[in-house]
Amino acid sequence: SARRAADLCRQMLAYSGRGHFVVRPTDFNALVRENLPLLEVALPKAVRLSARLEDGLPRVDADVGQIQQVLMNLVINAAEAIGDRGGTVTVATGVREVAASDEELWRASGHPLPPGRYVSLEVRDDGPGMDPATLDRVFEPFFTTKFTGRGLGLAAVLGVVRGHRGGLSVLSAPGR
Question: Cα–Cα distances in Å, from 92 out to 2, 42, 148, 151?
Fold first, then answer.
């Protein structure tokens, strides 16, 4: 119970942007590669995990543990969206040029991103997609579409992304 309470507190602190971050230069692809085997074990047998990692990414200043949490939350959410019918979750990295007009990347965090080059992480699934009402609420603390769960996974992702001065967007629609 104490461990679960501590985990819940960490997730809430991450959401609020007040979590304790230990930031150091990080090879993003190496971090993703190291965690893929662990993630594969956590996924249902009907869900396949694939990776498309762009070579030559610049190092990023990141808290490795927090980024691992983001990766885990996104991949598990994607796998749960697919469900028992089976499908694929794809993790991709790359570099993205962000312009001042790229509002969709900071709308959720509320903090405009300075234009420039950013390392990107994309988690894509071939689940049924989300309706607009669900999409509007995905980052709300305690919002969940599942029977069980705390609804903190994507809220924590948002907090970690805010804490790393990054941006995020969710693209989904029913059937996509």
Answer: 35, 19, 28, 24
